Amino acid sequence: MLRLLKKLRRNERGNVLILTAAAMPLLIGSAGLAVDTIQWTLWKRQLQRAADSAAIAGVYQRVQGADLAGVQSAVTRDLTFNQNTGIALVSGYPTVDISADTSAATTQEVQVTLGIQKALTFSSIFMAQAPIIVASARAASVPGTDEYCLVSLENNAANTGITFTGNSGVEMDCSAISNSPSSNSAVARGSSIFKAPSVAAVGGIQRSANFQVDRYEPYVPALNDPYANVSPSQADLDSKCPTGKSGNGNGNGNGNNSNTALTEDTVIPTGQTVFCFNSMSVGSNRTLTLPSGTYYINGGDAFIQGNLSCTACTIVLTNKDTSSTASIGQFKVNASSNINISPPTGGCTLGTAGCFKGISIYQDRRAVDSNQTNKINGNSGSRILGSVYFPKQEIDYNGTGTSDFICTRLIGRRVTFSGNSGIT
C-alpha cells in the first residue's frame, strides 16, 4: 500500500486538468469583465454624443437670448432625441452650467453633464454596485471675425433681418450679419445674388445658390450696435431749431426762421457747420450741393428726386422735441436720383453728442418701426461713403439702381434688396 501511494505521488498525469479547473473562475471572470468593459465603453460613447448634442442645443438657445431655464428646456428636449443608451439618467442629471469661464475666443458657453448607471451580470459578482458613467460637454458660440458692412439690428424672431429678392445683385468684399433669431434670419430668393466672404446670423440661414459666399455662419452672437453711443446734440438742436412758423423753403437754417424746408433753392449761410431744417427735398432733375457740416432735419422727411452732393457732411433725421413719441422723418430716394455723399472724418470724438464722424446718414433711435421704410429707389446711381444708419427702421434698396458704396456700412433694423438693384 505504501509503495502504491508513493507511485501515485510521483505520477504527474491529470495535473493540467486540476490546474485548469482551479483557474476557470478567474478565466471566466476576466472574460466577463472584458465584455462588461466593452459595454461600458459603448454607453460612454453614446452618452458623450448625447452630451455634445445637448450642449450645442443649449448654445443655440442661449445665443437667441434664453436664460438658464430656457437653456435647460432646450437641453432636455434635445436629450429626448439623442440620448440613445436606452438607460434613464441618474437622479441629479443632466446638470447645465452657463456660468463657465468664457475665453476671448468664445462666448455664450454652455456645459452639460450626463450620468447613467446599470448593473451588468459579470461585474456585479465583484462589485457592490455598478459604476456611474459620466459624460460632459462644453459648447460655445464663436463670434464672427469678419468685417461686417451690412448689418441688421432686428431682434424679433418673427422677422427676417436681411433679404435679397427679385433680380437684386450685391457684391461686397466684406460680410453681412443679421441679429434676428429667426430660423430664416437672412434669405436670398428669386434671381437675386449676394457675393461676399460670409453671411452670418444669430438665427438660422437657409443655404441657397443665391448666396455666393465662402462661409455660412449661423447661430453666432449678436453684433452690438456700432453706433449705440452716437446721438444728436440737444444744445445744437435748441439753438438751431427754435420754435417758429414754417417758412417758404428759403430759410437759412441758422436758427433764424429755421423751421423751413431745405431745398435746391435754399441759400446756405457761410461760416457755419451746423444747420437745421424741418424737412429736406430735391426736385426731379434739380441739384442740391451742400457745404460740409451737420444737417439736422427736425421731424420731417428727406425726399430726394434729383441730385444731392455733399462732402464731409451728415444728414441727421431727428427732432428737437425730447419726448419718446417725437416724430422722426425718413430718408427716401426716388427714381433717376443720384447721391454723392461722404461723411466727416475728424474734428471730434465719436460718442460725444453731435459727433457723427464716419456717418453719412443718421436716423434717431426714436423712429417707430412701421411698414413705411427708408428707400433708395428706382434708377438711383449713387456713390455713398461712410455709414448709413437706421437702427429702428428698415432700409429698402429697390429698383434698377446701380450704386457704389466705398468704405460703406449699411446698418438698419432690417435691410432689403429688391427689384433689379445692384450694389458694389
Compact overview of the structure:
This protein has helices at residues 2-10, 15-63, 68-82, 123-126, 234-240; strands spanning 95-97, 107-116, 133-141, 148-152, 162-164, 169-171, 175-178, 186-188, 193-201, 211-217, 261-262, 274-277, 279-282, 287-290, 293-298, 302-304, 307-310, 313-318, 331-333, 338-341, 359-363, 374-377, 383-398, 402-417, 422-423. The relative contact order is 0.09. It is α/β, with parallel strands linked by helices and 424 residues long.
Provide a descriptive summary of the structure in words.
The chain has 424 residues and is of the alpha/beta class. The chain has helices at residues 2-10, 15-63, 68-82, 123-126, 234-240, and strands spanning 95-97, 107-116, 133-141, 148-152, 162-164, 169-171, 175-178, 186-188, 193-201, 211-217, 261-262, 274-277, 279-282, 287-290, 293-298, 302-304, 307-310, 313-318, 331-333, 338-341, 359-363, 374-377, 383-398, 402-417, 422-423. A six-stranded parallel beta barrel has the order 4-7-9-6-25-24. A three-stranded antiparallel beta sheet has the order 1-2-3, with helices on one face. It is elongated, with a radius of gyration of 35 Å. The N and C termini lie far apart (114 Å).
What topology does this entry show?
Layout: H1 2-10, H2 15-63, H3 68-82, E1 95-97, E2 107-116, H4 123-126, E3 133-141, E4 148-152, E5 162-164, E6 169-171, E7 175-178, E8 186-188, E9 193-201, E10 211-217, H5 234-240, E11 261-262, E12 274-277, E13 279-282, E14 287-290, E15 293-298, E16 302-304, E17 307-310, E18 313-318, E19 331-333, E20 338-341, E21 359-363, E22 374-377, E23 383-398, E24 402-417, E25 422-423
Parallel strand pairs: 4-7, 4-24, 5-8, 5-24, 6-9, 6-25, 7-9, 9-10, 11-13, 12-15, 13-16, 14-17, 15-18, 16-19, 17-20, 18-21, 19-22, 20-23, 21-23, 22-23, 23-24, 24-25
Antiparallel strand pairs: 1-2, 2-3
